[in-house]
Design a protein that fits this description.
alpha/beta; TIM Barrel; 15% strand; binds flavin-adenine dinucleotide; 47% helix; single chain
């Protein structure tokens, strides 16, 4: 099933993101989390491409799809691969029944410049994958701008190039202020981009961890939220409560604003995400 066919105007899709664990214990915990989240009937799950390599992503994606019957999407990053490696990987995905992929450039090492060759930007991967097999392709979008882009309008032009190359929907970087998302969506419309937008949501559970994430990905935490989190830092349960309250308010606002999908960055855990999704469903009409 192609993810693009899951979007409807009546209700947003719900999806969960996982990463390939490094250890057997991590695998056991992940599998427990997936099974708990399966009760929430996600429209799809996605598996990131990490330093463990494409084979770890492939293994998890195919296992979830074949054993649990959940539509599974594989993240692909191109800067780490040659053309022939990527061709072989795409052929394997297609042969194993994975037709949904998220086409990404991948992060560069600090100080590393964009490599030469076939794959410099995600656009190159989108057109390569689309020409190889009829994948349903999603791409990343950045409501607050990609950290390496000099200008948000230029970033949106690059996003449009990815869609023109064959992608059909966008999943966003995590963000904590819905106004950033809605402002950006208006800008996309002005640039002729009118594809489904899936909002990336991360329920905050740990203050130092979220500070690390936002520093890396260029997102911002609004000052009042940051002040509340820092005041509660010594009390982990209170941090989780604040994080869930904020994520629930974000979800409710996004749904009211007509977002196409909600994509939860689970960090391979189930509780925070499940609590937010259940609370939202309980209050939804
Ligand atoms: C939903 C989501 C999932 C992710 N999953 C993973 C994952 O599984 N594994 C992983 O390693 N990383 C992942 N990332 C992180 C991602 O790899 C980084 O954000 C990376 O730095 C950019 O990837 P991209 O696909 O957005 O790149 P691109 O779309 O190529 O953009 C990268 C930068 O280059 C600029 N640019 C694009 N085209 C051009 C051009 N022609 N000329 C000049 N500049 C250009 C853009 O404006 C942007 O600043 C994910 C990010 C998101 C939002």
């Amino acid at each position: 099933m192609r993810i693009v066919n899951a979007f409807s105007s009546s209700k947003p899709t719900v999806s969960f993101e996982f990463f390939p664990p490094k250890t057997d214990d991590g695998e056991t915990l992940l599998w427990q989390a997936i099974k708990r989240l399966q009760d929430l009937q996600p429209d799809f799950v996605s598996i990131t491409r990490t330093g463990e390599g494409t084979s770890a992503t492939l293994r998890l994606t195919t296992r979830i799809q074949s054993e649990l019957g959940i539509r599974s999407m594989s993240h692909l990053t191109c800067v780490h691969h040659t053309e022939s490696e990527m061709a072989e990987h795409l052929d394997t995905l297609w042969a194993q029944g994975i037709e949904n992929v998220l086409a990404l450039r991948g992060d560069l090492e600090p100080g590393q410049s964009v490599p030469g060759g076939k794959f410099q930007y995600a656009t190159d991967l989108v057109s390569f994958a689309a020409n190889r097999h009829p994948f349903c392709i999603g791409v990343a979008g950045y409501p607050e701008g990609h950290p390496q882009c000099l200008n948000i309008t230029r970033d949106i032009e690059h996003l449009k190039a990815k869609l023109d190359a064959g992608a059909s929907y966008i999943i966003t970087q995590l963000f904590f202020d819905n106004d950033d998302l809605f402002r950006w969506r208006d800008m996309l419309l002005k640039h002729g981009i009118d594809v489904p937008i899936v909002a990336g949501i991360m329920p905050i559970t740990n203050v130092s961890q979220i500070k690390r994430f936002v520093t890396r990905c260029g997102a911002k935490i609004a000052h009042p939220l940051l002040v509340r989190l820092e005041a509660a830092e010594a009390n982990p349960e209170e941090v989780i409560r604040i994080g869930q309250e904020h994520a629930l308010a974000q979800v409710q606002g996004l749904v009211a604003g007509g977002i196409s999908g909600l994509h939860f960055y689970t960090l391979n855990k189930s509780k925070a995400t499940a609590d937010v999704v259940r609370a939202w469903k309980a209050t939804a009409h």
